[in-house]
Amino acid sequence: MKKNSIIKSATSVTLLAALALTGCSANSTSTTSAVSATGTSTSSTSGTTSKVADSFSTDVKNGAKLAEDTHYSAKDVTWDSSSEVTIDLSNPTATDGVTVSDGVITITKAGNYKLTGTYNGQVKVEAADSDMVRLILNNATITNSTGAAINVVEADEVVIYTASGTTNTVSDGSSYSDTSTDSPDAAIYSKSDLTLAGEGTLKVEGKYEEGVHTSDGLVIASGTLEVSAANTGIKGKDYVDILDGTVTVTASQDGIKATNDTDGNRGWVRLSGGTVNISAGDDGFKAERVLEISGGTLNITQANEGIEAQYINILDGTVNVTSSDDGINASYSTTTTTDSATTGSTTATSTDQSAQTGQSAQTGQNSAPQAPSGSAGQAPAGGGQAPSGGQAPAGGGMGQPPAGGGAGGGMGGGGGTFEVVDAAINISGGTVTVNVNGDGIDSNGAVTLSGGTVVINGPFTGGNSSLDTNGDLLLNGATLTAGNAGDMFEAPSTSSTSGYVKISNVSNLSAGTTVQVTDSSGNVVANYKVTNSNTALVLVSSSKITKGESYTVYTTTDSVDASSTTLASNATSLGSFTAS
């Protein structure tokens, strides 16, 4: 599991109630097209040495839904078409609220501006800080080889709206003439709140660094958005709120992220509708503080780490993640400095996460023996050794949680030897499928799986596990199936409300085989389709599996639906297993 960030010291941040920020209302006109959605906002806090106290208006740490306000309202995308000022990009001329000079079209006042045609240069918005500006793209192509193609210097809010049936392209060049600090770095760059919406298509090519970047809040309300970027695809400082539409991001570094790490209820990302497709060279879907999925579909086809934030809450929707490292990772950074081993600048309370998460350096963990097939899956007392040069925690064994930590422990990067920090993953609904080479679900704090369906395929190489926590791993009702190489295993907390069956040291788990688990009445309570022939351990849990009861495990080559309750006709028994 990759950890370039630095995890927090032992002190947890106390969640404070209230202080929901109210978004700025825009100067809107009357009606033409309407897209309704509800906005919100949360916070981020990760300074160079410490973070401010949280001020989310709900207890997101424990999986509650975000209840913050954003700048967006449905009136932002409604206006009177008769008020539109048309700008012919192929032959722009100055008019009221518009100046043209030296390859720059500048919009200086609130209004609705329809852009059509092709322009080689920059469209700049430099209005009053109370002005609402709408840019209505109607088959517009804007290219600037030396800087941002759309540059919002000042306004209350800017809406970029694509007209129905149109395809619009905004692109920059691979080098900028202005590279000073805080200068634009994206094809679409904004220092004000930004809304992307419409009924058409917007293609953004960020050849310099980012595709879309706002140093305020970003709402994607509707439309088709296609972004390619040399660095990050879409970046909103305070928040990125995706309400609807189809968003496709291809980025050399991060896909979509919010970066505010100093304000109490900012630095969050949310998906509540629409479809998001991400292919990223580094992290796919990322927030400094809270990342919530409450609807829609997220497909991450390539990433180093798929989903990453301090608090990750999946309440509904469909999530598919394929990653070369961790699939879903919750961590908490209190410093932006790098590890002392490389720079010598890290504070005494900061520790590099890669040294804390069960990597190959931790040979004691990786070589710790597995529990016998059919057992509860606990590590033998005193099982693992501390990493070279490190100290084992009080209580010693791999199966012991740290002081104040979870009751789980077990083997592999979780509850035995690492600091429990203020981070959490909560899955209470939806369908989540994770395909990984690193840890499937990895939290430096707690993990609670209380609802929905979770499938984890991998890892199939050493040094990682399907489930990895430093705190409690609670199986409280979600339907969970996971298969991996069996190198490492973390036992869920004994305070979990659901039981689990651990199937290990068995043969015939070749790719395409389905593992079926039946109760004493012969009813199928879980199905897991094996995706990799290196699978040596399968874990299943659900509200139908009760601790202490016996379950029979079968394999079949028949095609079996994941929700099937019927045993396949050619199923072969692997024996009886007791749920823990």
Any overview of this molecule?
Mean pLDDT is 82; it is low at 1-50 and 336-417. The protein contains one helix and 40 strands. 1% of the residues lie in helices and 40% in strands. A 13-stranded mixed beta sheet has the order 3-4-6-8-11-14-17-20-23-25-27-30-32, with no helix packed on it. It has a twelve-stranded parallel beta barrel with strand order 7-9-12-15-18-21-24-22-19-16-13-10. It has a four-stranded antiparallel beta sheet with strand order 37-36-39-40, with no helix packed on it. It has a domain at 75-284. The protein is mostly beta strands and 580 residues long.
The main sheet orders its strands as 3-4-6-8-11-14-17-20-23-25-27-30-32
Arithmetic mean pLDDT: 82
Helical percentage? under 10%
> What amount of the residues lies in strands?
35-45%
Number of strands: 40
User: Which parts are unreliable, with pLDDT below 50 for 5 consecutive residues or more?
Assistant: 1-50, 336-417
Q: Whole-Å distance between the termini?
A: 27 Å
Question: What structural class should be given to the helix and strand makeup?
Answer: mainly beta
Q: Counting H and I runs of at least 4 residues, what is the number of helices?
A: 1
- So what's the overall shape? elongated
Give the biggest beta sheet.
13 strands, mixed
If you compute it from the alpha carbons, what radius of gyration comes out, rounded to the nearest whole angstrom? 26 Å
